[in-house]
Amino acid sequence: MTHPFDSAIYLDTIDTNTRRGRTHPEWANMVGPFGGITAAVLIRAVETHPDRIGDPLALTVNFAGPIADGDFDIALRAARTNRSNQHWILELSQDGEVKTIATALFGIRRDTWGDTEARPPTVPAPEQIAPSGDQGRVVVWARLYDMRFADGALPGEESQPSPSSTTTLWVRDNAKRTVDYPALAALCDIFYPRVFLRRGAVLPAGTVSLTTYFHADQQQLDSVGDDHVLATAHANRFSNGYFDQSAQVWSRDGVLLATTHQIVYFKG
Amino acid sequence: MTHPFDSAIYLDTIDTNTRRGRTHPEWANMVGPFGGITAAVLIRAVETHPDRIGDPLALTVNFAGPIADGDFDIALRAARTNRSNQHWILELSQDGEVKTIATALFGIRRDTWGDTEARPPTVPAPEQIAPSGDQGRVVVWARLYDMRFADGALPGEESQPSPSSTTTLWVRDNAKRTVDYPALAALCDIFYPRVFLRRGAVLPAGTVSLTTYFHADQQQLDSVGDDHVLATAHANRFSNGYFDQSAQVWSRDGVLLATTHQIVYFKG
After folding, report:
1. Where is the Acyl-CoA thioesterase-like C-terminal domain (chains A, B) (predicted)?
2. Structural domain includes residue A223
3. Which residue, A145, B203, B232, B248, has fewest beta-carbon neighbours within 10 Å?
């Protein structure tokens, strides 16, 4: 049986620079599909291209308009190929109408000096935190993940505004599909909108632009396997109907797998 | 007399969706022009487009290949226009070869609840710090800015590796041109590469992808005028020839003008 994630990122090749995918009801968000699955599909599209070199280093996805239920086409091309990296432009459309645009940087990783300056938040192990189904009551796709909140769970009906926008959770695919680059791209968008915490309520909100930097190499992804990862996010400023979010995704043994940022539209 | 910044972002209109600019020797970087001036030019290109609505909210620039001295063409189009925001795709090329690709989100700001959760670093006033010309000895364009480092100045010949990648500086255009969105886009790329600090040396390094979220509205930019802004940056992880940087740009009176992130290639 194909895992829901693999079904969702499966693409038909229409021609060298065109892929066709489709939405899946289990990945539904408040409007259209989960942004993370769209990010995953775009990474997958580049991975299927015969000219692709290397692995994902950076991805920016602009959610320009809601993706309707059904088929979508992805037009992609390498705008420039250098010796060790490659710049892609992608456009996802339905019936000729652009829904999502993206740029992706792929590259060949090579051994250099390295260090992780950021530190993961100090939290109990996932086994010591009960899984929460709260987010799954608001959006269908969240039911596909095991989420264990160490900090900043989804506000309930009785919640008050929080002075902090930070959420930290352990998260794992419920069906224990292993983490590869598309899965990591999706995990980077796992957080509900930070404005919910600050306002103590679920409000209309949606990511407009999402940027992810992939730090993990293949070996580090392989080490994660199907284990929980630790995801933490906060906002810097809310103003004029938009806020920004910065987040990190860590492996259990303290490898910074990705850093990721987004700007989110909100009402109220 | 035209200010060097205005000369650098000046664009000829070739047709509705094409602008022509040119490099200027005073904006030269180690290779090609300062990334910040390229970001500024791309914002300016959208601003000159008759279909543009609103002001910059987000910009992602992928520096795909070195821009040679001379003319460049910018092809731009609104991939999608919504009621209150607009998604642009831009490609900068020279002799038909793509050098830079970008996406931009423009939108109309509206009054909502707001709060700044981030806090500016605590530093002495710019008047209490001597301006440093160090960066100007490495790159020509830095001579156009007044830079006063509170933390993490450019390493010198005798420098040791620093355990921290943080740089915090007051910065102002030397000729006191006022801060608008293109100028803010440029200020977001003001930092020399974080790997210099961590390695205690100047090494080959260059930004590959830069994302900026513009938080300031027009009134907040007008309040900055030609004053110093406070810019602070740090890296999260260095590995496999790349590192990421996250940064903030603040006004003197504590308005978070922009948050900005980049992934940077380095050698050694």
Report:
1. 129-265
2. yes
3. B203
* Segment holding A199, helix H or strand E: helix A194-199
Q: Where are the beta strands (DSSP E) in chain A?
A: 12-15, 18-22, 55-63, 71-81, 85-94, 97-107, 115-116, 145-151, 167-173, 205-214, 229-239, 242-250, 256-266
Cβ contact B118–A89 (<8 Å): no
Task: Say if B15 falls within a structural domain.
Answer: yes
Q: Using one digit for the tens of pLDDT, what is the confidence trace for B85-123?
A: 999 999 999 999 999 999 999 999 999 999 999 999 999
Distance from CA of B89 to the nearest CA of A (A): 8
Q: Report the Cα B215 to chain-centroid distance in Å.
A: 14
Smallest CA–CA distance, residue A165 to chain B, in Å, is: 8
d(CA B49, CA B82): 16
Across-strand partners of B101? B62, B91
Residues 6+ apart with CB under 8 A from A266: A193, A195, A203, A204, A205, A238, A241, A242, A243, B112
Q: Which residue of A has its CA nearest to B194?
A: A117
Of A65, A87, A213, Cβ closest to residue B62: A87
Digit-coded pLDDT (tens) for A204-254: 999 999 999 999 999 999 999 999 999 999 999 999 999 999 999 999 999
| Per-residue pLDDT tens digits for B208-237 | 999 999 999 999 999 999 999 999 999 999
- CATH number, domain of B254, equals 2.40.160.210
ipTM entry: 0.98
The count of domains in chain B is: 1
pLDDT > 90: what percent of chain A?
Answer: 95
CB-CB: which of B58, B110, B112 is closest to A263? Answer: B58
Of B64, B118, B266, nearest to A79 by CB-CB distance is B64
